[in-house]
Design a protein that fits this description.
The structure is a single chain. The chain has helices at residues 4-10, 29-37, 54-65, 78-89, 109-115, 128-133, 172-175, 197-209; strands at residues 14-18, 41-45, 71-76, 95-101, 143-149, 182-186. It is α/β, with parallel strands linked by helices. It has one domain (12-208): 3-Layer(aba) Sandwich (Rossmann fold), CATH 3.40.50.1820. Helix 2 (29-37) links the parallel strand 1 (14-18) and strand 2 (41-45).
Length: 215
């Protein structure tokens, strides 16, 4: 007879990955592969980040999650904002943890710079509002962790000035939202977070333990 405890232990935790603005689901393939190698069952959630934005992405994500079992979310940049916005609207969704990679949870000054220029504002499309506003704090039931980068290479530096450390697109201070369960910094640029072995390892540790591995 099969041992039910062993069967339960063999079930791989589910993780749904969300990409950022100007990217597509294929962007997350390397990260999904690293998480699968770490023992997770991965799925990718694609959405139109510019022409649809959160008004399209959030309802679709809610519909994807509402009839599922326990699942964790991992969002790069705008993907993290979309994830938390969905949980704010529907706090009963069965999401256990959220890992954000370089997400400007307190709002993006680079996005404000883009939005303030008539030539560049259209690049943000319908995601402009959420990217600029962010959140005041996190008070939801899901544990939220942030993996931020501190290698300042990215488009954001052309549209804003960073007074402190940044990943070239998002300032570290923009990632430090009150209410986070944990926060860590790895040596990566904003885009590099998706391809970083260190970022993937920290994400996997948080998804299993609810905290990041001490550096």
């Amino acid at each position: 007879m099969a041992d039910p405890d062993r069967a339960e232990e063999s079930v791989k935790p589910r993780v749904l990955l969300l990409h950022g603005i100007w990217n597509a689901a294929a962007w997350l393939v390397p990260l999904a592969a690293r998480l699968r190698a770490a023992g997770f069952q991965t799925e990718v959630f694609g959405y139109p980040s510019v022409f649809g934005g959160p008004d399209v992405a959030v309802p679709r994500l809610i519909a994807r999650l509402q009839d599922s079992g326990p699942v964790a979310l991992l969002g790069h940049s705008l993907g993290g904002l979309v994830a938390l916005q969905a949980l704010k609207q529907r706090p009963e969704l069965p999401v256990t943890e959220v890992v954000c990679l370089g997400t400007p949870l307190r709002g993006s000054n680079a996005a404000r710079g883009l939005a303030g220029n008539a030539w560049t504002a259209p690049a943000l499309g319908r995601s402009a509002g959420l990217l600029q506003a962010g959140f005041d704090r996190w008070e939801g039931k899901a544990r939220v962790g942030m993996v931020a980068g501190n290698v300042a290479r990215g488009l954001g530096r052309h549209f804003t000035r960073f007074d402190g450390e940044s990943d070239g697109t998002v300032a570290l201070e923009e990632t430090r939202l009150p209410g986070l369960a944990d926060h860590c910094v790895v040596a990566c640029s904003h885009s590099g977070l998706v391809f970083s072995a260190d970022a993937a390892r920290q994400a996997a540790h948080f998804l299993r333990k609810g905290r990041f591995q001490p550096l």
